[in-house]
Amino acid sequence: MVENYDQSGSLILRGRVFTMEEDGQVEAVLIEGRRMAGVGSFEKLQKRTRGKPKILDLRGRTILPGFIDSHTHLIGMGLEEIRLDLSGTHSLAAALEMVSERVRGSAPGEVIIAVNWDESLWKEKRAPTKEELDRVAHKNPLILRRVCGHQAVANVKALALIGKGWKRVDRTRGILLEDVCLNLDDVFPPSRDQLLSALKAAIGRAHRKGVTSVQDMAKPSHLWAYQRLRQRGELKIRAYINLPFAEEKRLSELGLETGFGDELLRLGGLKAFADGSIGAKTAALFSPYRGGKTKGLLLHSQKAIIEMVKRGEDGGHQLLIHAIGDRAIHQVLKAYEKGITSSNPLRHRIEHFELAREEDMEETRRLGILLSMQPNFIGNWSKPGGMYEKRLPRLRENNQFGLIREKGLRIALGSDCMPLSPLYGLRSVIDAPFPQQRLGIEEALRMYSLEPAYFSFEEEIKGSIKEGKLADLVVLSQDIFKEGSEGTEVDMTIWGGEIVYRR
Ligand SMILES: [Zn+2]
User: Fold this and answer.
1) What residues contact residue 445 under an 8 Å CB cut-off, 6+ apart?
2) What is the distance in A from the centroid of ligand 1 to the CA of 91?
3) In sequence order, which residues have a C-beta less than 8 Å from that of residue 381 and are 6 or more positions away?
4) pLDDT score, position 13
5) Which chain residues have CB less than 5 Å from ligand 1, an ion?
6) What is the CA(375)–ligand 1 centre distance, in A?
7) Which neighbouring-strand residues pair with 35?
8) Which helix H or strand E contains 184, and what residues bound it?
9) How confident is the model over 422-463, as pLDDT tens digits?
10) Three-state DSSP class for 261?
11) What values do phi and psi take at 411, rounded to 5?
12) In angstroms, what is the span from residue 417 Cα to ligand 1's centroid?
């Protein structure tokens, strides 16, 4: 009966509705147009609607506010999704055939990137050569990246596009290692068509995962893609666009501040980096990485980072500073202490906060800094034998959500697109290996809804199930609070009153 719900009438969803508000759990939500027109008992809502509402009885299933992912790279993820995937091939010959088919379907000159080849699974047991790539593509730059992501082969046309500044490029054999492979989007900027296809693919994935809003770490060219999709009526996700700190001057000159825009597309803050990553041993630690002397590195001097904070603050920009290692986190807090107005009205944040020391958690609370963190990292790296164990001097002290929450700090959860899936993040944090990492389901869900809405200054319009707020909702396949809810999946995603995904 709801298949033909066209947003002109009213729709009542009935199920286990968790509102994230004081009423806790209710029975039904009434949707009219893009907004929620009522929340409460089914009978009451039914009486309130004029005409005959459509009713969707979800029985025992959970209805929650649509998930808000507080840290995404939507277009980067989408570009990965639209690339030619060679992971299922059993021979080099078959892979080259797939590539040449893609070449035939592409405009001359368009850059083609194929990914995930693994010569150990191929009959030939060897990597492709530059000559082979030249044979299948002589009018298109072509890059084939290995499954590890750190090695690739390029044809002549592609090699010609790689600037002199990139190291680890063997121009005779067409072999690319490390930095170029890891930054393909910078070396071979995607075309506008590719940006649009990538963004569409990413929005599709977000809907399948119940995500209705993102706080995206974007580039200016991405903002163009968001606007173009919006004009076409295809931007069915709310995006809070954070731009690199390098744009600060231009934005300030134009008078563009955090918050400019509307409920669909809004300018967020400025993204800066204080250090690197644990995997690459570039996150800045106080004590050395396991089995060596390196402590990672700070990307800026203390003075420089204070200056950045002051510029952000003066220009009306929220700052989102990537800080992973304890030394970087400490440095950023010192800069915030010097550079921001007390009580933090611009809601400045730290991204990741993976290895924070307890005393710096206290300092974070004192300064009122918000934390955008990724429970996915626990699932990906914190298990026995995982990357954290291999790299870190002290294993337990990573992603201590439970401890941080206990200290009264505000956390929003995000995925960093590794992968984009709030249910995976949720599972990772409620089943975390160490007690100080764990969160309860209810508080974790709040960090995927009302908390991130606060982080983007939008807590009045979304993030909870409340009369008057935008009708962004997710329906889960079962009661997620019940024991044994491991297999929970996203059944339906409603965005602005429209059903945008159904399993
Ligand atoms: Zn990120």
Assistant:
1) 18, 20, 64, 426, 480
2) 35
3) 278, 279, 387, 388, 398
4) 97
5) 416
6) 13
7) 32, 470
8) helix 184-187
9) 999 999 999 999 999 999 999 999 999 999 999 999 999 999
10) strand
11) -125, 135
12) 8
